[in-house]
Each structure stands twice: as structure tokens, then as C-alpha cells.
């Protein structure tokens, strides 16, 4: 009988722990699926994708019982410059129609253009001979310049950077003499954002063809540039129980790259619907289990455009920065097969040691890896202001990044529960 009771008790504990873990991951999965759905248009600046995502996050804050920080609103508004591609987008080479996001990208700074144009190839020999290069440019008047990234990558770094800038500057003139620029690459297609717009179209095509094989380029692209686009951070707070007036700040950017024309959008599952899901999961926990300190949750906007949301928060702080004991930034939290990396772990070695010891004790993740400072996400401006901060990202699993393949279906969330448990225990230890 005693053995039977012990077995029943063990099974109950296993069931409860398993169910809680499943419920946590299931909540995250629902959030990722929602934020990556076509309704949010890649959480960018076409069809108000960013606005819809911010509204959804605010509704989650409200349902969890978080209090607003900016007056009676969860929103902190700011403006950004942004270049967008709301509708028309087409490209064909020698009559072969290419698929956006799969076969080609329009460069983020591209301007509008329409028509069929002869192509002029810049070859490797042209890059290393200034006279030959200038001759090719003159030959390309009213035509499309085509070059190979592989040829350019073989050049010395400083010269390569100079050439890239020169080719980009061709389109910044109000009266450009070329019709457009097309780069051929064998590398993965990776998109980004831009706050500036050129006056001609720019494309990147994934192909192993040589530039000289391209004879005709047919394009149809329309850009829309905003100098003062209004977007927002979403901020909520759970009051602490100690009355000490100290704050923990947990942040994750919710924006992504949005739409590239009418048929392609970038779901941004790992980057950063996953981090937003971790943010909301921790908000749910602290709403039910208040920390000694106030915990402020910030879903930052416009990270992909250049860390605009976090910079605006730091320059216009709705909470006293000097009272922030620690800032945790969550960006790319959707895998975890190989553990996590902690940016600033080497800077704050005592705090990192605490995080690492918790993981060793409870075996949440395969590895907790430290690295030095890097201004590569929303922790950056807090770090510069002297706020102790970590940026945590997961490793392993899906390689999709800034492409159309970073979908909810492709995201395993394999290390989500372990990362969540480790970060929760670490944050709870910070009052000691």
C-alpha cells in the first residue's frame, strides 16, 4: 500500500509539473501564432501592422492586470523615419518572373521604378580598375547596373565598403543617370529596414548566374517613405511588495520588418514574437506572484529600424532610470537546443555567475554562455546609461532570420520552458 501511494504521489507531481510546463509553452505558442499571423502584416509599417501588434500587447497587459505607467495609457508614442513597400512589387530577369522573398529582395532603401531596361554588367576586373569602372557607369546611363556580391567580396575591405557606398549613393541623387542597381548573391536572402529612400530601385537576387548573363531587367516597385511615422512602446507595471522603490525592467521588441509588396511579409517568429511571448509569460507570472521590486514590462517599438523605441524610452524615461536595479532584454527566444547566450555576461560577472549557478543546480538549459558588451538590441542605451543589463538570446534550432521563413510553424520553442524557468528564478534572486 505504501509503495502504491508513493507511486500515485510521484505520478501526480509529474503530471502537475508536466501540465504547468505544457500550459506555459502553450500560452507562448498561442502568442507567437497570433503575432505572426497575416493580420499583423509582419508587425511593420504597412497596413498599420505595428499599431495592431501594440494594441494586442496592451490588451494582454490589461487582461493580466498590469497598471499603465504613462498616465492612464499603456502607450509611449514616438516618431521614426521609415521606407515602406505597400503594394506593387515585381522583378523579372530575361523574361523569367521571380518570387519576392524567395528569389529576390527589394533593398530597404529602394525607390520606385517601372519598366524594362537593358542591363550593364560590372565585372570583377571593372571593380579593380577605376577607369574601367567609370566606363561601365557611363555605359549604364538609363540602364540597370548588375554586379556580383561574390566579386565584390573578393576585394579588400575598405575598398569594398567604398564601392558599396558609391553604388548606394547613385540613387540618392535627385537626378540619377542609371535606371537601377541589381546585386546577384549566392548567400541567404536577409532583409532589413531603412529610414531613407533612394530615387531608383535596388534589388538583390539569389542566383548562381553571372552578371553578364543578365540582358534585360523588368521591374515594378512602389515605395512610400515616411519622415515622421508615429509608432509606440507598450509599457505596463506590476507593483512590488517591499515598498523599496526599486525597479526591475523587462523588455522585448515586438516590431519586425513588415510587408515587402502585397504578396510577401516577414512573420518574425523568432525575431521577435518569441521574445514578446517570453515578456508576456513573465508578466503573467509576476501579475500572479508580485516581486519585492516593481517590475516594469516594455514591449519596444522600432527596434529593427535602429533601436528607436528603447532610445526614446531612455531619453524620455517614464520611470526613474536610477531606480532600475536591473534590465533584462529578451530578443530571439524561440529555440534553445544549444542553450542561451548572455550579452553583458562578461561585464556583470557576479550576476552572470548567479544565473549560471541556478542553471547548474536546476539543469534548465544545456549551456549558459557569456559574452561581452554589444550594442545589438534594446539593452544598448540602458547599458550606456549605467543600468545593469543583460540581453538573452537562445541558440540552436531554426536558422531563419530576417526572412520569409521565420514563421510560427518553423519555430520549435524547444528551450522556452527552460529559459522561462531560469530567468524567473534569476529575477526572483535579485533581492538577495
Automatic annotation (TrEMBL):
<dbReference type="GO" id="GO:0006508">
    <property type="term" value="P:proteolysis"/>
</dbReference>
<dbReference type="GO" id="GO:0008235">
    <property type="term" value="F:metalloexopeptidase activity"/>
</dbReference>
<dbReference type="InterPro" id="IPR045175">
    <property type="entry name" value="M28_fam"/>
</dbReference>
<protein>
    <recommendedName>
        <fullName>Peptidase M28 domain-containing protein</fullName>
    </recommendedName>
</protein>
<dbReference type="InterPro" id="IPR007484">
    <property type="entry name" value="Peptidase_M28"/>
</dbReference>
<dbReference type="Pfam" id="PF04389">
    <property type="entry name" value="Peptidase_M28"/>
</dbReference>
<feature type="domain" description="Peptidase M28">
    <location>
        <begin position="233"/>
        <end position="417"/>
    </location>
</feature>
